[in-house]
Each structure stands twice: as structure tokens, then as C-alpha cells.
Amino acid sequence: MDDLRYPIGKYVPQPFSEKQLEEWLIDIKNLPQHLENAVVNLDEAQVNTPYRPDGWSVKQVVHHVADSHMNAFIRFKLGLTEDNPTIKPYDEAAWANLKDTENLPFNLSLTILHALHVRLVELLKNISGNQWNRTVFHPEHKKEMTLWHLVGMYAWHGRHHTAHITSLRERMKW
After folding, report:
1. pTM to 2 decimals?
2. DSSP state of 54
3. Distance separating alpha carbons of residues 147 and 137, to the nearest angstrom
4. What averages of pLDDT result for each successive group of 10 residues across the chain (174 residues)?
5. C-beta separation of 106 from 63 below 8 A
6. Quick one: CA torsion of 59, 64, 67, 69, rounded to 10 degrees?
7. How many Å apart are CA 136 and CA 143, to the nearest integer?
8. First-to-final CA distance of the chain
9. What is the pLDDT of residue 1?
10. How far apart are CA 150 and CA 35, in angstroms?
């Protein structure tokens, strides 16, 4: 059986190339619309269905992507303006269980993502060659990460969570 946690596989870092950058920027630019398409016409029961046993609901996934990508935006800005800054980890599961996620409709997070990704793409497309080698320090993983690594990871992250929802829809025949 396929691992429902990783419907597109785990993130695999790639060497720098202009072609890869173009692909990742397209993924990041299109994520809000792809995520919106993935949830279109779902009813309340479907929105509250976990994408896998013991997984987050569709609603939690959408709110999580907005939470995560807001953090990503800040991480890129820190990485571009400070020398190897320590980024702030956060407890994703705890955030997914806060009342805003429970009480508010996911369309608010989709709206955030549409605006945020316009800014994120503008920031990313103006990073120059050497700037991709700038680093941030992730204390939870105890390692430095280049901005290049982060752009690939967040491009994957959006596709990963969109696939959670689209694969659920396929399995449930929604």
C-alpha cells in the first residue's frame, strides 16, 4: 500500500539549475490555485475528513499550508538580510489544533496564500545566484540550510499537501 503520508514521495534536494528554479517558482506561484481547486465543492463532512487515519482533516491541511508558508516567507527574508540567522521552529501539530483552525473556514487561509505567494514569488525571483547559498540555521534539525534548499522544500511542501487532498478525493470518489 502506498504511504498516505507522502503521496508524492519525500523531498529530495536538487542541485542548483535555472531550469529547476523555474519549475519550483511555477509550483510556488500556482500553489494557492491548485490548493483551492483541490477543495472546491467539498461539503462540511468532507472538509472535516482526515486525509489518512490519524492525519489532519482537509481543513487543517489548508490552514497548515498557510501557517507554514507564512513562516517560509519570514525565513527567506531573514536569510536574505541576516548572516546565518537562527529560524524559529514551531509545533505544527499544536498549531493545527488551535481554535482558529477549528473555528474559521479554510477559505481565509486560501486568501492569505493567494496574497502571500504573490509576494513570495516576487522575493524569490529576485534572488541572485550567490544569494541562493545564503543560509539559515534550523535549531530543531541542528543544521544550516541554504535558501536553495528551502525553495525546493517549500515547492515540494505545497505539492505534497495538495496531493493529500486530491488523493483523498480520489480514494473517496468525491
Report:
1. 0.97
2. T
3. 11
4. 88 97 98 98 98 97 98 98 98 98 98 98 97 98 97 98 98 98
5. yes
6. -120
7. 8
8. 21
9. 44
10. 20
| CB-neighbour burial class of residue 106 (10 A; exposed 0-12, middle 13-18, buried 19+) | buried
Amino acid identity of residue 122, one-letter, is E
Scored b (16 or more CB within 10 A) or e, 117-153 reads: beebbeebeebeeeebebbbebeeeeeebbbbbbbbe
**How far is residue 168's CA from residue 174's CA, in Å, rounded to a whole number?**
8
In this structure, the chain runs to a length of 174
* Residue whose grid cell is 527567506: 76
Q: In angstroms, what CA-CA distances link 24 with 88, 151, 154, 159?
A: 24, 7, 9, 10
